[in-house]
Amino acid sequence: MPALDSRREKFAELNAQVLDISADSVHSHVLWQQRDIGTIGFPMCADFFPHADVIRKFGILREGAPVPGIPERAAFIVDKQGKIAFSRIYPLDDLPKIDELVEQLKKLGR
């Protein structure tokens, strides 16, 4: 999250809005920022109730082991027409490749 936040201006230059969606509550997002990662300057959305409704619609809700009920770690780029132009699922212990996301956004802007 801090790595994405640190590149927020670059995403804005590419006419893109970064946001996070998780199945955690707003309260847990606030505590996570206060205790662990610091303040994040982009929206952190709580897909808490009904549990993981949006995450399920994107097809990334983990149903099985090792951690059921949470979303896969994923990145999506939605174009101006509202269509998914890019998506990638990452291992839970891996972060999205920010440079890859920037390159995909540049391709959309051409």
Key terms for this structure?
36% helix; 110 residues; Glutaredoxin; alpha+beta; 4 strands
One letter per element, helices H and strands E, the order comes to HHEHEHEEH
User: Number of helical segments?
Assistant: 5
Strand order of the largest sheet: 1-2
Query: What is the structural class?
Result: alpha+beta
Secondary structure: number of strands: 4
What is the CATH architecture annotation?
3-Layer(aba) Sandwich
The CATH homologous superfamily corresponds to Glutaredoxin
Portion of residues within helices: 25-40%
Could you walk me through the main structural features you see in this protein, from its secondary elements to its overall organization?
The protein has 110 residues and is of the alpha+beta class. The chain has a single domain (2-109), classed as 3-Layer(aba) Sandwich (Glutaredoxin). It has 5 helices and 4 strands. It has helices spanning 2-6, 8-13, 26-37, 53-57, 98-109, and strands spanning 20-22, 44-46, 73-78, 84-90. The strands form 2 sheets. It has a two-stranded parallel ribbon. A two-stranded antiparallel ribbon has the order 3-4. The longest helix is centred in the N-terminal third of the chain and has 12 residues, at 26-37. The relative contact order is 0.17. The model has no long low-confidence stretch (mean pLDDT 92).
Summarize, please.
By secondary structure, this protein is of the alpha+beta class. It has 5 helices and 4 strands; from the N terminus they run H-H-E-H-E-H-E-E-H. It is 36% helix and 17% strand.
